[in-house]
TrEMBL record:
Pfam families: FrhB_FdhB_C, FrhB_FdhB_N. InterPro entries: Co_F420_Hydgase/DH_bsu_N, FRHB/FDHB/HCAR-like, FrhB_FdhB_C. Residues 183-340 form the Coenzyme F420 hydrogenase/dehydrogenase beta subunit C-terminal domain. This is Coenzyme F420 hydrogenase/dehydrogenase, beta subunit C-terminal domain. Residues 421-432 have a biased composition (Basic and acidic residues). It comes from Roseofilum halophilum BLCC-M91. PANTHER family: 7-HYDROXYMETHYL CHLOROPHYLL A REDUCTASE, CHLOROPLASTIC. Residues 401-432 are annotated as: Disordered. Residues 98-171 form the Coenzyme F420 hydrogenase/dehydrogenase beta subunit N-terminal domain. Transmembrane segments: none annotated.
């Protein structure tokens, strides 16, 4: 039993949501079926599951075992190559470098240096997989993301760029397995955790899901974050034709295009100027693995201090974690798909991602505070949270724990039960 969590009975979907543990991945909908679980856009601007009828014990058990809101284990030891190091903060890595997509268009259009898009394209073109599961802007509602199955390079490139707002990439994951064709996934760390959890129960996942590519994640924002960006320019959502957060440069502009061909833009630093207005989802604030410990390869930004000082040509920090990741990385390098400029260490990652260092160090104490306030916490077996906590001074731990307990009491760490935003539901959920 994980020392970071207490024993808790199976949680209902509503309990997961109200505890602030759901980030809206959609896997429970896929497990239970769309006739029993709906992923709804809530008035808070989050995608959350609503059970349409009571779920039977077997379904609840399957959700309990796989939901990445409540199960966040470390990587399977056999997936990690011999000689890889496991850092207390960053998890396993066999190789780390600064690099970028060698293809100039991918590098330019990608979020940072286009490494994830380049690897996904390479997997398709070398026929290692038949398609990529990732997300792209919804065609009907461009401020929301939707699951995308990309069967060719054009589609992968179209979906490049980071999407910081709501989207449920796994809402149809069982249908993906039903195709019975090999695929790769690009997703946030929690998306990959969900699929790794499922992999332990469903042999089809092990057989078909060949690669998991991920990113280091600062968290998803509520829709209010994007709506306030539109507000700054007086744009109504109904007028919007496209919404892009970044890319086309590193970091590139946040760009809004209206149906009558007007374009508005914000710099990355302007969009994220005030942390109080990020609209970060409660689950993301306490995320115990936002660094993609269970992915094969992780790509991230590499600005010292985590903020860009201007535009550059595009660079990623690349963390190669598993045996499969190592094979892919080596082949991609040999075939000229990626270019690297230097190796890096875990301590470089500390400099690039100071917010992730603080978050991981605080996780154990925050969970203690949540438990003290009566909330369930995720099971984080193998993530070294208690070990990390032991390295902190007790005063810091106490402050973190009290802070979390108080935030639960004032409603900032839990969430209301999910209800539908008037006029919006998930009827349109599907692949495109
Ligand atoms: C919510 C969020 C928070 C992030 N926070 C940080 C951070 O704190 N620190 C940091 O270094 N980097 C962060 N990133 C990652 C960073 O923005 C880049 O995605 C990363 O550097 C990879 O760059 P790339 O050029 O290789 O990506 P690209 O080549 O542009 O590929 C991006 C891929 O990610 C997929 N994707 C984009 N958004 C989502 C999403 N919401 N859910 C699932 N898949 C998605 C796309 O479909 C695409 O396949 C964040 C990304 C996201 C989505
Ligand atoms: S985190 Fe995912 S699986 Fe868990 S309740 Fe939320 S949507 Fe469902
Ligand atoms: S911070 Fe964690 S829970 Fe939130 S989107 Fe990122 S990986 Fe998922």
């Amino acid at each position: 039993m994980n020392k970071n969590s207490h024993k808790q009975d199976k949680l209902s979907l509503d309990e997961i949501v109200t505890a602030g543990l759901c980030m809206g991945c959609g896997l429970c909908r896929s497990i239970a079926g769309s006739e029993r679980v709906e992923i709804a856009m809530t008035p808070e601007g989050r995608e959350r599951p609503i059970a349409l009828s009571p779920l039977d014990e077997k379904t609840l058990e399957a959700i309990d075992a796989t939901c990445p809101g409540i199960r966040v284990p470390s990587a399977e030891p056999e997936s990690i190559p011999e000689g890889a190091e496991t850092d207390i903060l960053w998890g396993p890595a066999t190789q780390m470098a600064i690099g970028y997509a060698t293809d100039p268009e991918i590098r330019h259009r990608g979020s940072s240096g286009g490494v994830l898009t380049a690897l996904a394209t390479y997997l398709l073109e070398s026929k290692e997989v038949d398609f990529i599961l990732h997300v792209a802007a919804s065609k009907e509602r461009p401020i929301v993301s939707e699951p995308r199955l990309s069967f060719d390079a054009v589609s992968v490139l179209e979906a490049s760029g980071s999407r910081y707002g709501p989207g449920a990439p796994l809402a149809n994951f069982m249908e993906v397995l039903d195709f019975n064709r090999p695929f790769a996934v690009v997703g946030k760390p929690c998306d990959i955790t969900a699929m790794r959890n499922l992999e332990r129960r469903d042999p089809r996942v092990k057989k078909l899901m060949r690669y998991c590519l991920s990113l280091i994640c600062g968290g998803m924002s509520d829709l209010s974050k994007i709506l306030s960006a539109l507000d700054q320019f007086g744009i109504r959502e109904s007028e919007l034709r496209s919404f892009r957060y970044r890319g086309y440069g590193n970091p590139g502009l946040t760009r809004m295009e209206t149906k009558d061909d007007k374009t508005f833009a914000l710099t990355y630093n302007d969009l994220w100027a005030d942390e109080a207005n990020w609209g970060t989802q409660p689950r993301c604030k306490i995320c115990p693995d936002a660094v993609g410990e269970v992915a094969d390869i992780v790509a991230a930004d590499c600005w010292p201090g985590a903020s860009p000082t201007g535009e550059d040509e595009g660079f990623n920090a690349i963390v190669v974690r598993t045996k499969r990741g190592q094979e892919l990385f080596e082949k991609a390098m040999a075939d000229g798909v990626l270019t690297t400029i230097r190796e890096i260490t875990f301590r470089d990652l500390d400099r690039f991602q100071p917010h992730k260092v603080r978050q991981k160090k605080a996780a154990w104490a925050r969970f203690a505070g949540m438990r003290a306030a009566g909330l369930p916490v995720p099971n984080t077996e193998g993530l070294r949270l208690e070990e990390l906590a032991r390295e902190q001074g007790w005063k810091k731990l106490l402050a973190q724990a009290r802070g979390a307990r108080d935030r639960v009491k004032t409603g900032r760490l839990g969430e209301p039960s999910a209800t539908r935003e008037p006029s919006k539901n998930d009827e349109s959920y599907g692949f495109y």
